Amino acid sequence: MSTTTLTTRRLARPTVRGWWRDIAGLTAWASVLFVVALWVSGRGLQDLTTDFFTSTGRLTGLLSADLLLLQLLLMARIPWVERSYGQDDLARRHRIAGFTSITLLAAHLVLITLGYAATDGSGVLGETWTLVTTYPGMLLAAAAGTAALGMVAVTSMRAARRRLRYESWHLLHLYAYLGAGLALPHQLWTGADFTASPVATAFWWTAYAAAAGAVLVFRVGRPVWLNARHRLVVEEVVPEAPGVVSVYLRGRDLDRLPTAAGQFCIWRFPAGPGWTRGKPLSLSAAPDGHRLRITAKDLGPGSRRLATLQPGTRAFFEGPYGRLTGTVRKGWKIALFASGIGITPLRALLEELPYQPGEAVLFHRAGRPADLLFRHELDDLAARRGVRIHYLLGPRPHHRPSWLPAGYAPVPDEHVLRHLVPDIADHDVYVCGPDAWIDAVLDSARRAGVPADRVHSERFAW
After folding, report:
1. Alpha helices of 143-250 — where are they, by DSSP H?
2. The domain over range 326-459 is classified in CATH as 3.30.200.20
3. What does each C-alpha distance from 8 to 151, 172, 294 come to in angstroms?
4. Measuring CA to CA, which residue among 136, 129, 124, 262 is closest to residue 195?
């Protein structure tokens, strides 16, 4: 079986600055406060007593527009933001901003309609018709734009996400860009708060330009440039286990690709129908400047198609993404927890990270021995680098959440963890696997005394 090994060749690695996260967070909150300040300067507080519905409608509209732009920026794949927060945290904040934005947008439509109806002395239905049909840009914003954003919000609910494949959900999610674009004409043509002063006009044009520019540069331009530069192609496809394959990729100047063990990319292979829908897959071997390896389990048509790829097939990628890397490490000792296909980024980390014999421990969870991926490679790492490995086989207990097999059920998880790794609180903990399993590991680590800033996880949820 082919393997990827570390070399002494100098590689480009992603960097993370501690202040990046602070600057990004402060900028987001500053934009929200500035929007409120614009509303106050436009007599928003004074108008509350005379025209409550219209005044609060103006505020909800301003906040909705700002949050809409912020959620676009959160998922624009801006490298320094993505490396500071990680995709899990960004996706969570993106969902919060998105649901809050669509809620405020609905409130804006209702409040403005009520306010205008009260001012004009007309009925609500009649005022709604007048607003939609006579105000410039309102038909696009209120009907088409709101419908597009509403569809994105509905398909982002947990129950809806469970029924959709990642590829389908991702395609529907792109309508958020359409919704944001359709809302712009209304805001610039009839939004008094957008054109009330040169400062307000400059702020909103700058905000929209920044959001559009970030999407074009980092979601379109950067992937196009990286793919043109590195020209990845399939070298070979290797079966790893029933329903699991590894794809080895080669290309140009891979030592200049800023990627690290633990990261993932969105992959597309032009072979067969539906290839344009991207698939997120982690690197399963440490990048060595010569080639890359990704590994996937058969979870649907997208991953199943990988087994049929032919050598020479072009590979298109977006990324690399993810914060589950050595850049977040606080100390020298590491404890890695993997369940199923979640072993892929952790196996790469074990290969790349520096540590001495006895300073690294791996917990590898699987239902049966045949499901243990990379067993021979992991045993080789254990022999060469002194990694302690605990294979966790068998079903888990049904009566309580646990990351351990049912045989450990009589003993609390954190007691087992402290028994197997007495100094676990001195370790950086890396976790990858299904959501419920990750939650059980994180709870156990917390109870065992691991500091929160030493726990790093990557979830398969989206």
Report:
1. 146-155, 158-163, 166-173, 175-190, 192-195, 198-214, 222-230
2. no
3. 50, 44, 22
4. 136
264 with 242: CB under 8 angstroms? no
- Domain ranges in the chain are 19-225, 231-321, 326-459
Beta bridge partners of 296: 245
Q: What is the pLDDT along the chain (462 residues), one digit of tens a residue?
A: 444 343 444 576 666 677 778 888 899 999 999 999 989 988 888 888 888 888 898 899 889 889 988 988 888 888 888 888 877 788 888 888 888 888 888 888 888 878 878 776 676 676 665 665 565 555 445 555 566 566 565 555 555 455 556 555 555 566 566 565 666 656 665 566 676 788 888 898 899 899 889 989 999 999 999 999 999 999 999 999 888 999 999 999 999 998 999 999 999 999 777 777 788 899 999 999 999 999 998 766 666 788 889 999 999 999 899 889 998 899 899 999 999 899 999 999 999 999 999 999 999 999 888 889 999 999 999 999 999 999 999 988 888 889 999 888 889 999 999 999 999 999 999 999 988 999 999 999 999 999 999 999 877 555
The fold for domain 231-321 equals Elongation Factor Tu (Ef-tu); domain 3 (2.40.30)
Count Cβ atoms below 10 Å from residue 346 Cβ, excluding itself.
28
Residues near 364 by beta carbon (within 8 Å), at least 6 away in sequence: 338, 343, 372, 378, 389, 390, 391, 392
- Distance separating alpha carbons of residues 289 and 10, to the nearest angstrom: 8
Amino acid at 140: L
